[in-house]
TrEMBL record:
Residues 98-142 form the FTP domain. Binds 1 zinc ion per subunit. The keyword rRNA processing does not apply. Residues 805-815 have a biased composition (Basic residues). GO terms for molecular function: metalloendopeptidase activity; zinc ion binding. The active site is at residue 563. GO terms for biological process: proteolysis. Residues 681-712, 773-815 are annotated as: Disordered. Its cofactor is Zn(2+). It is found in: Secreted. Pfam families: FTP, Peptidase_M36. The keyword Transcription regulation does not apply. This is Extracellular metalloproteinase.
Amino acid sequence: MRHFFSTLLVVGSLAGHIYGHRQHTPSNYDEAPVRARKTLGFGPAHPHAEYHSTPYQIRTNGFTPMDPSVDPMDVAKVFIEDVLGQTAPNMSYKIREDSYTDKNTGVTHVYVRQLVNNLEVADGDMNINIKNGMVISYGNSFFKGTAPSPQAAFEEGSNLFRDPRTEACTSAREHLRANRQSYADQYVMGTHEPIPQDVVQVIDDNCASAFDPPSFASNDLGDFRPALLHFMHTATPNAELSKEIENAFEEFKNKMSVTPVNHLDSGSQGSLLEYTAENVPDAISPVKAKLVYTQVPNQAGDATDLQLVWRFEVEMQDNWYEAAVTAQAPHKIVHVVDWASDAPIPTPEEPNAATYNVFGWGINDPSVGERSIVKENFDSLASPVGWHAIPTANDPSLRNVRMKSSSFWRNTTTTWGNNVFAQENWEGQNAYIDNYRPDAGKSKAFDFPYDPKETDRTDALAEAKKYINTTVAQLFYTTNLVHDLYYRYGFDEEAGNFQQYNFGRGGRENDGVIANAQDGSGYNNANFMTPPDGQNGRMRMYLWNTAVPFRDGDLEAGIVIHELTHGLSTRLTGGPLNSGCLGWGESGGMGEGWGDFMATTIRANKEYSDYAMGSWAANREQGIRNYVYSTNATVNPSVYKTLDKPGYWGVHAIGEVWAEMLWVVSQRLIEKHGYSEELFPPAPNADGSVPRGDFYRESSGGSGGEKPLVPKHGNSLSVQLVINGMKLQPCRPTFFQARDAIIAADQVLTEGENFCTLWNGFAERGLGSDARIEGQTPWGGGVRTNGYAVPSVCQDDGGDDGEGKKKKKKHPKKE
């Protein structure tokens, strides 16, 4: 099997990875002064990567479980060395500091990064999941070849600088030609788009042999500026700036201000090189640069070689990139992802609850319900001091102000708090601290009118802006509720959630969500940027000019939930400090699918219905996806094989298939366990313990130590298993691996009582145990075969439904 890596852009609909895309306005809507926008997302295949999802597989490989009393980190070290065997010269590893133990399940998630010649292998990742001395699952993409000598990495003509892109570029161009018409027919974000010129341009830029002029070359491998300028030349959406970089390379290079961050053992060529660079064209903050290795396919395509690259973290106006560019000229972009102490907790003074006139939780949009007055949700676990308090030391609006007050907390009367900063962004820029937000005064009663009138199209924007107070209050309310909900299901501080202050509970602070309403950089979209833990997530919500009056995406909860779920899945997959695990192909597609699944699950009710995504905002009954989400295979025929269809190479189309699979699986769990009207777990007791109520099972599953809390009903259990599965799956997961991680999560949580229910649910949509793919490519290509088989224990008439009854397997029509 040959594996190539693509230079394709990840483009599509609702919130790509950074989760939004180029903004398009229909030709008759001339009121949309939008910036050009493109987003890169591609990388090499890792044919040697593996994921083992059961302890049985691991024992078969020869690792013996250790005593439950052994520290999980010690178990991990023994396991790593067992997997690696005799440590090769110049090869080692480090356990990352974002490793943590899940408070509910007791599983310790250990994240490991490979080192060669004391340099990181940027995509050499291992995630190990440990409980009671046993490795219950692990993923591994460590480089398995022979480590080069430190000197070889810097030798001219070294095979580390081999350019393996010739066949990749040919393959990518052929793929584009094959999909040109089908992509034009795909409905995306309320418009029919032609195949994006961005896609063609980046392939031409990054593949053309004539692209690298002599001025981009450098004899100094320690000088990353030429490589960075090459990336900015490709990444900028500004065609004029791109041309200027070509024509005035030396001038741009010399304008950069470079500062060393960490340079150990400066006398050695193999030393750690890390810098920041300022005055980088089209970057809005200092660029981080680090010399690392990355893996590229070998000539045969069945293994990888190491390539020396500069890894950049580049924050731009509309993108936030992690990119690897070859250290030696001619510079090539190898891979790029668009990301998008124990102390008492002081209590703020007079924590009186705010109220909001909003579309309440469960009301997806104005077409399905009315606004009502709801109270601030005081959850002593998720938001111990409510939504409107923030420590003065963590308040970005006070960073340049000398505070005379000695008060620890600042109580606000605006949409500004520890979890979320919500405000308008009519100018479409990245500034947010001084942007307008409503002030409800001492009462904190966020009660504002909402009654937009139909106007001439030329006045529609001004009409929408009249209701900015309502819009921002709604965005603040929804975002805080999603924060609290995901917290209660395990997306807490150690797992990398978004908070300015972490209450001494671990994780990195100062990363609350920056939530911009009515963003002026475009229409008919939404996006979310997810840098690693400790850096603010950034969400931008747009107006939709699909109807008059304009429709405000801030008022459609499903869109907001979809965006925030990108932050959840990115931080949980591969660990809080690795935002590069869901960048493209099936993994990038599942990043979109989780967003749709969570949004649909949250809006659902006990009486089953099919649901469309984004139908109100887009003013389109079917919504912005190819199909509504439905268990009826006639209404939504998506199966694993659907990914081979023309038009399904983008992450959003891939995500639709994954979300449909999860929707079907969740309905099978509901059939077995019933339905909970309330997705929020019970309020915690005064001592912080959580009562079971009617939410959790009386007798929890699991083994050893304290039993985990297990949701009692099918819909809440689905949410828990999906989130726990994200923690167990490897970096850059496939559909198969994400499926296996969810099944493994059930084994941890319930001792596998839903094993057959889960397998049958996935098999309904072609992801059974005999599903397979041949010729898989990084951007999602390959030839897939639906699989409807399940493990032998579940094969008797569809397996047990949990009540002693046998279920007949239901298969949609095979495509």
